[in-house]
Amino acid sequence: MAKAVSETLSAPALIVKNKGLLTAALMLATVMQVLDTTIANVALPHMAASLGAAQNEITWVLTSYIVAAAIATPLTGWMADRIGQKRLFMVAVIGFTVASALCGIATSLPEMVMFRVLQGVFGAVIAPLAQTVLLNINPKERIGQAMAIYGMGIMVAPIIGPTLGGWLTESFDWRWVFLINLPLGVLAVFMLFVFMPDTEIKRRRFDFFGFGMLALGVGALQLMLDRGADNFWFSSMETWIELGLVITGLWVFVVHCLTAENPFLDLRIFKDLNFSLASVLMFLVGITLFSGLALLPPMLQSLMGYPVIFSSVIMAPRGVATLLSMVVVGRLIGKVDPRLLMLFGIGCMAYSLYGMTSFSLQMDYWPVITTGVIQGFGMGFLFVPLQALAFATIAPKYRADATSMFALVRNMGNGVGISLVTAVLSNMMQVNHAELAERLTATSQNVINQMPSLLGGSAQAVAIVNGLVTQQAAMLSYLDDFWLMLLLSLAAIPLVLLLRGPKKSARPKTEEEKALERAHAMAE
């Protein structure tokens, strides 16, 4: 059996004693970190009351984490080379766990924000580093299955985050949203210590200027996206300043990396066509996935009148469908053209978004569940092949930098998506309200037949009608957002067709490569 495996599998970049348990440790840490991007959302009102913070202030609990993680993510490649992947991973998980405990015992908003920054800094390297290790310990023939396992954590955790956070908050206390990380973190550190091997340390000089420019651009972008709506976007001088910092930081960073002798990031990774196209696709996926998760809870709660827990339960089947599809696609990816799987996934997403454009105030919760299941199932078929093709032709020495940039692109897509749909929602609510109100004229037959008291100028009638118009305008605005997400999904189709699979090498294997394959087969 081992001989058969050795004949069909190439040698991985890193041989480990127990790949299964190491994979479990990597995914445990990844799920713990990714879960914290959404698990605290539903607990914000309870946090505000407990910490004595205003509603507009408590959002810094989310913003501080996102900004810190965005700035620290690009450091993954350099730190992994400088101190070793195992040591970096263990420091990151320990730091994230300690920061989670501090968040759970915070007594004021400044303390909470400071501890969330620590969480973001330590947690930023966990997901990209886990992906790097998974790519290194698996032969290229099993990269698809490895990315399916990785995708389960990256995609499912944010979806179930609000549901788990709502249950913990209602059943226990909001502090358990953070304290739940303690046992998970301890277990992950123990498993990493036992099963993760040490890797070679490379003495790379740290490019302070390059990192500073990238941090400036990414940090300013996150601040602009998070605070833009509150500042009425480009009517505020703050937004213009932040935009200027984004353009300046990213432009100088690119020029510096192209001209410096030892830049912070080797931009040659973007010469790989698959990686560049996959990064653009991942940006679009980030927009459509997390913007939908941001839109549905307020729609269900404010327009449909569902309680927090029930709205979270309604969204849970989406995560189950994603989990199921990733199991299926993990078995298909070596047998079916990955581009066909991705096109099927985009088709499912587009179909579900088209169904969401028919939502109405009179419907029950079943359309939300069915469209969510279809969309979640499609996300699995899109995400797993996309991850596999993105790194199919990337040289192993570039993987740490490539995974950190891929994670950064995904997070930027998340931020852009949430800000985009929020801005469209706010703008279209005003437009739709004005258009609906214009139809309520004294000569309108509907007004004469159904609301005659409105013609008499009754203040109560005017208030009731205005409430109904506002509600309908809000529903139409959500539909406008769903149409926008549908168009963005369809825009990804041409990019999928340009992707290429890895080239098969006809070069005969050396005796050393054959020995590595036999060692890997025995480890299997």
UniProtKB/TrEMBL annotation:
Gene3D superfamilies: MFS general substrate transporter like domains (1.20.1250.20), Multidrug resistance protein D (1.20.1720.10). The keyword Membrane applies. Keywords: Cell membrane, Membrane, Transmembrane, Transmembrane helix, Transport. PANTHER family: MAJOR FACILITATOR SUPERFAMILY MULTIDRUG TRANSPORTER MFSC (PTHR42718:SF9). The keyword Transcription does not apply. One of its GO terms (molecular function) is transmembrane transporter activity. Its main location: membrane. It comes from Devosia psychrophila. It is a multi-pass membrane protein. One of its GO terms (cellular component) is plasma membrane. Residues 22-504 form the Major facilitator superfamily (MFS) profile domain. It holds the Pfam family MFS_1. It comes from the Bacteria. It is found in: Cell membrane. InterPro entries: EmrB-like, MFS, MFS_dom, MFS_trans_sf. This is MFS transporter, DHA2 family, multidrug resistance protein. Belongs to the major facilitator superfamily. EmrB family. The chain crosses the membrane at residues 21-46, 58-76, 88-107, 113-135, 147-168, 174-196, 208-225, 240-261, 273-296, 308-333, 340-361, 373-395, 407-426, 482-499.
